[in-house]
């Protein structure tokens, strides 16, 4: 198939950007002809171009109906795609306007569909034409149905398990804690709690992300740590590599990821929110987090979680699900 993947940007080292990069890479591996669109090109576009994915920041349908490409030597005609896989409200509307005959699979990563002032956020679904929606969690699926009467299929956050590879075993006690987030920095209360936890073990705290030090080579950083704090994709990267994962961030403390807690935490995409919208979500104090870590810091916990990751968060499986959905639309 000829597939166009699209995202608001192809530049930032952030969740939806790395999601699209991971998906596009696997679709190429499966033998599909993949192109990519974003309103802003940059680092992610460079990575995509390196594997043969042509990237565009503009689609024109005037005159010869050609796409203005990132690579000026290739100009495929507009509409030369079998399916579009995209995220974000304005991107979805723009691509449908330019390529109205091409079916769209829309991905919704989050629950912020409108600001308190009524401003439409990028995750707001499009409702004025047909889109086959994919939700990252039950929470998102429920919101799409309750607020917009839209049906959706759940495909959970996925990862390249050859890149984020599980190696070695946990140390006898944690020596290095990693804060993996683009949403807060070293001086935020969220991080201060983590430092208190680390001090209990005499451990170091490292930080990576927009307000620390951004890095594409996350696997090289994670391999040396014992416990990863974060939410969503960032915390699951640690679980992929056999580290103890703790959901803790701007939405509250979800706690340590174990086979038992997984069933609860998956409902809200490992964000720290409660699935019950009326329940309080809050940051737990350091002593409570320490108690929770002490109870499950062992190889059995991370091995059991890795089995779940292989089954439910492997891009090899997710990409095939997207292909099956695409084939049903064509």
Provide tags for this entry.
single chain; 11 helices; Rossmann fold; 2 domains; five-stranded mixed sheet; 330 residues; globular; 13 strands; eight-stranded mixed sheet; alpha/beta
Explain this structure to me?
With 330 residues, the protein is α/β, with parallel strands linked by helices. It folds into two domains: 2-158 and 314-329, Rossmann fold (3-Layer(aba) Sandwich); 176-312, Glycogen Phosphorylase B (Rossmann fold), CATH 3.40.50. The chain is 35% helix and 21% strand. It has eleven helices and 13 strands. It has an eight-stranded mixed beta sheet with strand order 4-3-2-1-5-6-7-8, with helices on both faces. Strands 10-9-11-12-13 form a five-stranded mixed beta sheet, sandwiched between helices. Strand 9 (176-180), helix 5 and strand 10 form a beta-alpha-beta unit. Helix 1 runs parallel beside helix 2 and helix 1 (15-29) packs across helix 11. The longest helix is centred in the first third of the chain and has 15 residues, at 15-29. It is globular and about 60 Å long. The termini are close together.
Summarize the structure.
Helices cover 35% and strands 21% of the residues. With 330 residues, the protein is an alpha/beta fold. It starts with a strand and ends with a helix.
Number of strands: 13
Give me the CATH superfamily of the largest domain: Glycogen Phosphorylase B
Radius of gyration: 20 Å
Q: What is the CATH architecture descriptor of the largest domain? A: 3-Layer(aba) Sandwich
Shape: globular
Q: How many domain modules? A: 2
How much strand content do the residues show?
15-25%
CATH class of the largest domain, anyone? Alpha Beta
Order of helices and strands: EHEHEEEHEEHEEHEHEHEEHHHH
The whole-number mean of residue pLDDT values reads 89
Note the main sheet: 8 strands, mixed
Terminal CA distance:
10 Å
CATH topology of the largest domain: Rossmann fold
Structural class: alpha/beta
Flag low-confidence runs: 62-79
Sequence of strands across the biggest β-sheet = 4-3-2-1-5-6-7-8
Question: So how many helices?
Answer: 11
* Helical residue percent band: 25-40%
């Amino acid at each position: 198939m000829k597939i166009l993947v699209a995202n608001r940007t192809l530049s930032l080292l952030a969740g939806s950007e790395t999601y699209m990069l991971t998906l596009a890479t696997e679709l190429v591996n499966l033998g599909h002809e993949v192109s990519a669109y974003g309103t802003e090109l940059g680092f992610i576009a460079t990575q995509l171009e390196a594997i043969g994915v042509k990237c565009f920041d503009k689609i024109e349908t005037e005159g010869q109906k050609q796409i203005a490409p990132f690579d000026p030597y290739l100009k495929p005609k507009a509409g030369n795609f079998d399916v579009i896989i995209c995220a974000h409200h304005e991107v979805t509307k723009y691509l449908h306007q330019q390529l109205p005959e091409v079916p769209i699979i829309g991905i919704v990563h989050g629950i912020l569909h409108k600001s308190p002032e009524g401003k439409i956020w990028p995750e707001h679904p499009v409702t004025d034409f047909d889109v086959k929606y994919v939700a990252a969690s039950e929470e998102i699926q429920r919101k799409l149905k309750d607020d917009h009467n839209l049906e959706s299929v759940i495909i959970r956050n996925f990862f390249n398990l050859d890149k984020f590879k599980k190696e070695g075993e946990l140390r006898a006690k944690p020596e290095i804690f990693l804060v993996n987030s683009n949403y807060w920095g070293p001086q935020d209360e969220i991080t201060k709690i983590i430092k208190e936890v680390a001090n209990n073990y005499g451990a170091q705290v490292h930080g990576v992300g927009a307000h620390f030090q951004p890095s594409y080579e996350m696997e090289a950083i994670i391999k040396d740590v014992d416990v990863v704090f974060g939410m969503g994709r960032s915390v699951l990267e640690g679980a992929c590599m056999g580290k103890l994962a703790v959901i803790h961030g701007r939405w509250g403390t979800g706690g340590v990821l174990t086979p038992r807690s997984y069933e609860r935490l998956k409902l809200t995409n490992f964000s720290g929110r409660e699935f019950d919208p009326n329940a309080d979500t809050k940051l737990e104090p350091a002593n409570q987090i320490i108690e929770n870590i002490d109870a499950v810091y062992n190889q059995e916990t991370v091995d059991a979680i890795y089995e779940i990751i292989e089954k439910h968060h492997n891009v090899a499986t997710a990409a095939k699900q997207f292909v099956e959905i695409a084939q049903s639309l064509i």
